[in-house]
């Protein structure tokens, strides 16, 4: 029965996230589109606008789909789109940061207020009602998952499943097979549920219940960052080839980010047994809980990847143009 309850909690969590995102689109969607179009004049402003819009709409997929639409309409260049996509990867980490807070006392007030606002006929206020209700349901689903996973954490058979891709260091080094396995699982789960934020929520719930450690959580989140690019690829299928280039840039950005981050898993500084990336997470999450460390790792991964790849944005655009050349007719 616990497994069924976990999936029930996951369903409420995903529905809450969708409701919150849809509500924000209703309340402020047109303004978000204006921000994306107006603030894409240079790469740094484009990154900032991508991060801001994604933090507000709580979905990097929604931002990248908008970007694909803008390119298809001839409103953005490929380089501008890449800047926004870079920012979207940072903005999407805000969801994990919110989830990592313990705000169970807010769940019922948010649900009550959200339901009341949904009965108001004003379109914008109804949008905010959906947002508040979605927020409450998101945390309600998260609470159900965490509670039930803590019970399942006592089951030896259930624990054995997670031991198969446990990435904890062995003899001072992370096991490559387990790391690749965890990345693959994160990728597949995100492709199936079409939301890296939802996958992050699952990972944080698993961490809070003690079923996985920080090492495994980071590998799962790295996989989810690749899996989330599938949405943009699907959105680009009917679009022109420049829009397809933008979708490819999104995928390459996350793949390069995973390769860069994973490369630090076997690099140690000083006397610490922890690899460089995890030393940074621990340093920036001093005395933080495991859910907070997981959320911070997600943010650090995307911020560091962006900082490293920003100078190579023109090169990335050129690579995408080489892989998917634009026909003369386009």
Notable traits:
mainly alpha; 330 residues
Mean pLDDT: 83
Q: How many separate domains make up the residues?
A: 1
- Poorly predicted spans: none
C-alpha Rg (nearest Å): 20 Å
Figure out the total of helices. Answer: 16
Helix content: over 70%
- Note the beta-strand portion: under 5%
What series of H and E elements makes up the topology?
HHHHHHHHHHHHHHHH
- Classify the oligomer: single chain
Coarse shape: globular
Q: Cα distance, first to last residue?
A: 56 Å
The helix-and-strand class reads mainly alpha
Please give the number of β-strands: 0
Q: Tell me about the biggest sheet?
A: none
Structural features, described:
By secondary structure, this protein is an all-alpha fold. It has one domain. Helices cover 76% and strands 0% of the residues. It has 16 helices and no strands. It has helices spanning 2-38, 43-57, 60-72, 78-91, 93-99, 107-118, 123-152, 156-163, 176-193, 196-208, 214-227, 230-235, 241-263, 276-284, 290-309, 313-323. Helix 10 runs antiparallel to helix 11 (214-227). The longest helix is centred in the first third of the chain and has 37 residues, at 2-38. The chain is globular and about 55 Å long.
């Amino acid at each position: 029965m616990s497994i069924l309850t976990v999936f029930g909690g996951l369903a409420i969590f995903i529905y809450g996230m969708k409701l919150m995102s849809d509500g924000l689109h209703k309340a402020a969607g047109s303004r978000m589109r204006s921000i994306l179009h107006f603030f894409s004049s240079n790469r740094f402003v484009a990154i900032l606008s991508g991060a801001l819009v994604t933090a507000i709409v709580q979905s990097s997929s929604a931002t990248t789909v908008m970007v694909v639409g803008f390119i298809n309409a001839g409103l953005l260049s490929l380089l501008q789109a890449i800047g926004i996509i870079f920012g979207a990867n940072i903005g999407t980490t805000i969801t994990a940061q919110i989830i990592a807070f313990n705000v169970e006392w807010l769940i019922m007030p948010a649900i009550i207020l959200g339901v009341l606002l949904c009965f108001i006929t004003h379109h914008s206020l109804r949008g905010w009602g959906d947002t508040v209700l979605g927020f409450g349901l998101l945390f309600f689903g998260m609470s159900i998952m965490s509670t039930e996973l803590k019970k399942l954490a006592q089951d030896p058979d259930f624990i054995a499943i997670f031991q198969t891709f446990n990435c904890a260091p062995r003899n001072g080094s992370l096991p490559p097979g387990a790391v690749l396995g965890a990345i693959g699982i994160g990728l597949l789960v995100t492709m199936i549920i079409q939301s890296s934020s939802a996958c992050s929520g699952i990972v944080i719930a698993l961490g809070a219940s003690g079923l996985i450690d920080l090492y495994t959580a980071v590998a799962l989140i790295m996989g989810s960052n690749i899996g989330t690019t599938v949405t943009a690829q699907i959105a680009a299928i009917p679009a022109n080839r420049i829009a397809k280039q933008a979708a490819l840039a999104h995928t390459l950005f996350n793949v390069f980010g995973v390769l860069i981050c994973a490369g630090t898993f076997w690099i140690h500084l000083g006397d610490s047994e922890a690899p460089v990336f995890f030393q940074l997470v621990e340093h920036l999450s001093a005395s933080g809980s495991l859910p907070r460390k997981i959320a911070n790792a997600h943010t650090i991964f995307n911020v560091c990847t962006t900082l490293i790849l920003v100078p190579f944005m023109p090169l990335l655009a050129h690579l995408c143009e080489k892989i998917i050349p634009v026909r003369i007719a386009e």
